Amino acid sequence: MTEFVRTEVRGRIGFITLARPKALNALSHDMIRAIASALQTWRDDPQVLGVVLQGEGEKGLCAGGDIRAFHEAVSEGGARKAAIMDFFTDEYTLNYTIATYPKPYIALMDGVVMGGGMGISQGAALRIVTEATRMAMPETAIGLFPDVGGGFFLANLAGHLGEYLGMTGTVFGAVDACEIGLADGVIPRASLPALCELLATGDWQDSDAVLDAARNFVRESLPPAGLAPGKLAALRDVIDTHFGHGDAQAILHSLAREARCEYAGWAQETEDLLRSKRSPLMVCVTLEQVRRARKLSLADDLREEWLMMRCVFNLDGRTGAEGVEGIRALVIDKDHAPRWQHANIEAVKPADVARFFDGERRAADHPLATLGE
């Protein structure tokens, strides 16, 4: 266990609290192991009928993985660099465990919920957001791709929203999350303690009763004050028009041609974002990832993402450590001037992208080979 994860059983509910608020509850390897251990224990405990995931602090549930630790491990080299994939093996196994958990797993997606925070939430039986929720898969900004099952849950959004959200890393709130299918309901942040108290003190007979009670609480809650309106629904057609093109270059050219006054500003901002604030290579890789994931199960998607992560940190010795440079520029040195492998998206060749997908997902020695069996 770890000081950054608290687990307790109250009544017939297991509570998991991420307790690293100074780091926006970023997930360390020890935290992932602690969550997995609690879920394994409660799976076989007849006293526990459901699980609630929550984050400590006002800022949010979880901002993602501990990317500082990734940078340190790769920079240090040796055994520590070699062991970095153990983190992703355990994290992706946890993502799958949550998605297939036999008891209701309820994620309170309050505040910042990004990257790894999405990974431990999207597989939940009930995903609850608040007026403070700020959700995104922003990995392309730091030279990564939307992992933790991101390929799978982005690919299953309507139209080409998955490509748009994955490539741009756009941040969105509770209304959008509910409307596009990445959340199940919204309640006021101030009501979260009452929901937890209800679940902890209820005389539940079975797991279905727990889930029904949580759903009813959400359904009967008053809308939060100050809830920001959604923005994605109004953009759906234009997103599909542009992000449905065959490759990243064609998407950029389409955005540049957007002449309708109503969307000209959005198109220009989106093109500028992709060109100046995202890794050219990872924008292209993410597009391919989301489209491939439409044909994959969650287990196969996680297996593929594990292979892709070896490439992004140059653990296969062939691709250049794009993620290390992005983390350095935005998190370590904070000069916001990453030296990406490619000057622009036009410079990315199909072979550069293909390297991320040439591993064998079903290889017997893949550490996630038995996932889903």
Automatic annotation (TrEMBL):
Alphabetical list of PANTHER family matching this protein: 3-HYDROXYISOBUTYRYL-COA HYDROLASE, 3-HYDROXYISOBUTYRYL-COA HYDROLASE-RELATED
Annotated keywords: Hydrolase
NCBIfam families for the chain: PRK05617.1
Pfam families to which the protein is assigned, alphabetical: ECH_2
Superkingdom to which the source organism belongs: Bacteria
TM annotation in the entry: none
GO BP term (any one): L-valine catabolic process
CDD domains tied to this protein: crotonase-like (cd06558)
This protein's name: 3-hydroxyisobutyryl-CoA hydrolase
GO molecular function, one term: 3-hydroxyisobutyryl-CoA hydrolase activity
Listed InterPro entries: ClpP/crotonase-like_dom_sf, ECH_dom, HIBYL-CoA-H
